[in-house]
Amino acid sequence: MTSRRLILLALALSLAIHLGVLGSGLLPDVQLDLPPDQDLRSISVKMQALDANEPAAKPALQGAVAQLRPAAPKPAPAKPKPAAKKAEASAPLAASEPMVAQTPPDKHASSAPQTETRPEASAPEAETKIASSEPAADSLAASDKDEASAAAAVTAAAADGYIHPKGRLRGFPRQATLGYQVFYGSAMLGTGTLDWSRGDGGYRLDVNAIPFIGPKLRYLSEGRFQSKAGLLPDSLQAWRGGQSKESAHFDYNAGQLRYGDQGDKLLDLKPGAQDVFSLAFQLGLKGGELGAAPIQITTGKKVYEYPMHPSGETDYDTGAGKIRVIVFRAEGDGDINEFWLAPEFSNLPVRIQRIDKDKRIDLRAVRIDVNGAPQWKLPPQPTRKHKNDY
Length: 390
Hints:
Helix content: 10-25%
CATH architecture of one domain: Clam
Strand content: 25-35%
Structural class: alpha+beta
Low-confidence stretches: 17-37, 54-72, 83-154
């Protein structure tokens, strides 16, 4: 009996140690066999570069809203003054109706006189809503439904087995959120999110990985955004468990790229340089056409130079339908970086793989929101543990 207890105790201790090492990032340097090339086929549909400019109709619409001010009430045709006062009181409410159509109703608004006393407050709110895309306007109605109904509306695959966005997506997104499952080799170790936003001449790309065991990982890429040049990264910063790790800083004035755990490594900055996360969005914006010259790419720890071009077309099989993707594969110094961009979903990266001699990290999308509107979400998969953790 004592021997059995000792064996069970030893097994429990061994399991705890292995789980602790797995979550700590202190994995041994084990040589992993690189996976075979994906089953790629010839590209049947050329991925298009996306327009990053605001719709031309936007300024006119804003101007129209800005001019919708209570007009002076027309003179009443010889009626008593109370009638004129009634018309005057109703005029601000009528004039504000187009603004109400642009924005969700305020549950805390109590009466029309509040609109009359603060007409300026509704203008910025209307402007914010106008800045959203056409799919985002559709999401206003969806937001009033419960989550199950909204998910059901965007998860069904077509009869041919392919998944399509809820609405036609136009231009390069101002905002997008993707939820991922994070795999280490073939084992699912956690979940992740990618949040993209642009505006006021800049961009922000925030990537988070949350393992089931171990510290959270975060990468933040920030820089300038130009319609013609695309993404011009200023910095990439990594954190592990809240502690700063590797970083990269792009000094365009000095023509230098600083990188490394201490930010003390220095290289000449090449035109068109990208960090490993901004690269996926630069490819999406430019339709994969970045030229034949090698691209300078940094992970914060290392710097690579290799050309980026589409490797082929394949299907991203979600287990509940397929998404057609164009695969971009960059290989150098024994490392492989892959981006699976979905043309129907604004060229967003639905799968990201990083492979080196020691490990394979695989991010597989399970949710796609564009400009605030849900476009696809993986339906429940009850037979697989953690399948719906995102």
